[in-house]
Amino acid sequence: MRTPLVAGNWKMNGSRASVKELINGVVDGAKAINGVDIAVCPPFIFIADVVAVTEGTNVAVGSQDASTELKGAFTGETSVEMIRDFGCKYAIVGHSERRTLYGETDEIVAKKFGVVKNAGLIPIFCIGETLEEREQDITEEVCARQIDAVFAAHGENAFEGSVIAYEPVWAIGTGKTASPEQAQAVHAFIRAHLAKRNADIAEKVQILYGGSMNPGNAKELMGQGDIDGGLIGGASLKADDFLAVCAAGQ
Ligand code: PGA
């Protein structure tokens, strides 16, 4: 059995004060939750404050991105070593907002995936189709292409010890959730696609659903056989909502 993972993606939200309140609330409530891996991914500048609260608790921390480069003259970038040094366990790579708003190609995302893993961090590798691609009925092709870029760069065992988040772009921040059946169908496809390279790794990879997951739909989504948790945006900004989603994974 795979342990579910519920990860909050705070995106570019919060102030120093509001983040303190949020993380204290999450850590407090998480004490009562067992059998679910829990993580929060704050903006870089808040990571140190958040880790100061989560250290020694069952709440892990991740970054929302990582540089492709390891060090040097890359103004504005944050390296995987820095991310690890500040106590992160995870790094989100290839979120659709990075892909569409910041021009991250499959190849750039695959490179990030590799540097994150090499640093001993766990990549939360995001994939998913746009509305247009779903309407063209090419959801599976799009997900396969995004995954295959990682296989091409890092070999057959690339996904060992990593996490995948399936996030249909049309469901992110829109209030439109994929139905449990729709999501499960894509998750099963993703696992089968991974299994073509290595069945053992495919069985172990946590595949999260992301896109308007909330306390009202989390249980049904996570009840599907291949949905192993969630990557939560909007609903992760309120401790009670986020904790309710975490509890739904129990
Ligand atoms: P949402 O975002 O839960 O607000 O739809 C999910 C994500 O972008 O990771």
Description of the structure:
There is one protein chain. Helices cover 42% and strands 15% of the residues. It has an eight-stranded parallel β-barrel, surrounded by six helices. The model has no long low-confidence stretch (mean pLDDT 98). Helix 10 links the parallel strand 7 and strand 8. The protein has one domain: TIM Barrel (Alpha-Beta Barrel). The chain has 250 residues and is of the alpha/beta class. The protein has helices spanning 16-30, 47-54, 80-85, 96-101, 106-118, 131-135, 139-154, 180-195, 199-204, 218-222, 239-248; strands at residues 5-9, 37-41, 59-63, 90-93, 122-127, 163-166, 206-210, 229-232.
Tags for this entry?
250 residues, alpha/beta, 8 strands, 42% helix, 15% strand, binds 2-phosphoglycolic acid
List the helices and strands and how they pair.
Layout lengths: L4 E5 L6 H15 L6 E5 L5 H8 L4 E5 L16 H6 L4 E4 L2 H6 L4 H13 L3 E6 L3 H5 L3 H16 L8 E4 L13 H16 L3 H6 L1 E5 L7 H5 L6 E4 L6 H10 L2
Parallel strand pairs: 1-2, 1-8, 2-3, 3-4, 4-5, 5-6, 6-7, 7-8
Describe the structure concisely for a colleague.
Helices cover 42% and strands 15% of the residues. With 250 residues, the chain is of the alpha/beta class. The protein has a single domain (5-248), classed as Aldolase class I (TIM Barrel).
Give the domain tally.
1
Q: DSSP helix count?
A: 11
Largest sheet: 8 strands, parallel, barrel
Query: Portion of residues in helices?
Result: 40-55%
Give, in order, the helices and strands.
Answer: EHEHEHEHHEHHEHHEHEH
What is the strand tally? 8
Look at the helices and sheets and give the structural class. Answer: alpha/beta
Q: What fold name stands as the CATH topology?
A: TIM Barrel
- What small molecules does this complex bind? 2-phosphoglycolic acid
CATH homologous superfamily designation: Aldolase class I
Overall geometric form: globular
- Rg over CA atoms, rounded to whole Å, is 17 Å
CATH class: Alpha Beta
Strand order of the largest sheet: 1-2-3-4-5-6-7-8
Q: Approximately what portion of the residues adopt beta-strand conformation?
A: 15-25%
